Amino acid sequence: MTEGTTSDYLRWMTEGHEYFLSRLKPIRDGELEGPSRLPGWTGRHLLSHVGHNARALARLAHWAATGEPTPMYPSPSARAEEIETGAAWPTGRLREFVVEEQDQLTDALGRIAEARWQAPVVTAQGRTVPASTIPWLRSREVWVHACDLPSGGDFADFPHAFTDALIADALERRRTVQSIDLDLDLDLDVVATGRGARAGEAGGLRVEGPAPDVARWLTRGEESPGLRAFGAVPLPELPPWL
Fold first, then answer.
1. What's the Cα-to-Cα distance from 69 to each of 56, 104, 162, rounded to whole Å?
2. How confident is the model at residue 235 (pLDDT cuts 50, 70, 90)?
3. Helices 43-66, 78-87: inter-axial angle, 10-degree rounding
4. Of 66, 30, 36, 61, residue with least CA distance to 48
5. With contact defined as beta carbons under 8 Å apart, do 52 and 86 qualify?
6. Has residue 238 got a pLDDT over 50?
7. Contacts (Cβ under 8 Å, ≥6 apart) of 44
């Protein structure tokens, strides 16, 4: 589970959506026809995914608020089908779609009574989580995918507390779901900027670098000059995070 409170997650979700839009605004429609930073996806695929993800999470919010089971997707193939369908829409419509679906999600979350924030819901990966996790899941999507836009954002722009929570979340998934033996402790004195992280793995691997670079590596598998591996071994190649 991530580090933070429901109010943290809601704030990070709102700030992340605003950040995503700020990185999207200067990108010309024609650029969105070309590749995003995600293999096989254009910028239009990315916008379709971000919009449809908000719609899917609103279904979970409805589940939490009412107790009526409403899965994120009606079938295992529905997610991919929605993304492909949306990617064919006019680019202007996709820009509006991202905003509209975020507004709908915010409204749906606002209908969850205080006592229902611990109600169980089931994610698209089949995990049963409390409803308070929903805005965290959305936070991850908007912040990280802002960095997948053509000429998009940077992990260094993320709020410090969000970055730390993202590292903890990614590390937990790498360990428990993917069985990758990593250990990481945030160390506020590692780098000159005042923030960084260290990671270790059985066999002597130790990785040191700024927290944004560690978050990028754990979620995207991307190395950066800011990361240093010790013990004369390279950084391990990481499979997709989600």
1. 13, 18, 30
2. confident
3. 130
4. 36
5. yes
6. yes
7. 32, 33, 86, 87, 88, 89, 91, 94
The model carries a pTM of 0.90
Decide: helix, strand or coil at residue 201: strand
Question: Strands (DSSP E) along 150-189, which ranges?
Answer: 183-187
Q: State the Cα–Cα distance between residues 133 and 123, nearest whole angstrom.
A: 10
What average pLDDT is seen over the chain?
87
Residue 72 DSSP one-character state: S
In degrees, rounded to 5, the angle at the alpha carbon of residue 239 between the alpha carbons of residues 19 and 227 is: 65
Question: Whole-angstrom Cα distance, residue 55 to residue 34?
Answer: 25
Q: Report pLDDT for 192.
A: 31
Helix or strand (DSSP H, E) at 196: strand 196-201
Angle, CA 222 vertex, CA 76 and CA 212 arms, to 5°: 100
Contact 56, 79 (CB under 8 A): yes
At residue 38 the predicted structure's pLDDT band, cuts being 50, 70 and 90, is very high
Contacts of 213 (CB under 8 A, 6+ apart): 155, 224, 226, 227
Q: Do residues 149 and 19 lie in contact, with contact meaning Cβ atoms separated by under 8 Å?
A: no
d(CA 100, CA 54): 9
- HSE-CB at 74 with a 13 A cutoff on CA atoms is 2
Residue matched to tokens 């809601």: 10
Instruction: Give the CA-trace dihedral at 26, 46, 139, 71, to 10 degrees.
Output: 150
Backbone angles phi, psi at 55, to 5 degrees: -65, -40
Take residue 142 and report the two structure tokens written for it.
């908007």
